[in-house]
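Collaborator request log, item 7. Partner lab (contact: R.S.) asked for a structural prediction of STAS domain-containing protein to inform their binding assays.
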Amino acid sequence: MRVHGAVAEVPVAGAHDHVCWVYRDDTDLTAAAIEFLAGGLLHGERLLCVGDRVVEGLRRGPTALGDIDALIADGRLRLLTVADAYAATGPFSAESQRAFYDDATRRAVADGYTGLRVFADVTALAADTTLRPELVRWEHVADEFIAHGPGMTAMCAYREDLPAAALGDLAGVHPQVHAPTGTAPFQVFFDDRGPSLVGDVDTVGAERLARILAATPVSGGACALDLSGLEFADVAACRVLARWARTLGERGVRLELWNAPPLLERMWHVLALDEWASVAFDAADRPV
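Returned to partner:
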């Protein structure tokens, strides 16, 4: 399983890592960006930094990255405003963003870099209630791309004064999270074989889980959801999974629940959810 869970410090991110970083102020934002991007220099990655305030912070004075202008001149670093990175691709959508980052990552690899490391402060998009649902969907699609794509690593930054529900939705689709305690009691992210659900899902979080699962990219005739990291799930969580299974079934996709906790499987049968939505329980590890 990919590296996941709460992080207190900027992680030494490797290829295919995806980190949500909730920051306090501009000083905290710039410090996190510098440390994360500096790791990319050590790994031989091309760097892309997105966000108006973080770009200002990098240009404000000497940093551990060295000469910013020299990095830009030799193609090692690119600085973009939010408008440059997101509005320039047309109406904001997960599909247009995936195409943008797929192209940028492949260009980096073709130019001899080991991959693309992205630091993006997208607080402005998260603050826009009309864009927020699509932003959450993009973060989820982005995680699938990062897990299975040609070599992108990313840290997505959000200011802590955003609404708690927004931070919870966004943090919930990242494998690694730096945020106040309780922001993301559970996470849905992609592993080598498909999506994984880890953490605790109760009645309060069930609606969020439903939104995230509805946005989960699924292809093929079966979807295997790994539950090996699920610590707790109540009746509401089981019903959300059943509704998702039924929706997938209507699309011709069979849901497989891998490594489900025994209590969840027991509740599933006690609630007769197997009569309403067909799923396959598998206690074995996924095949390699």
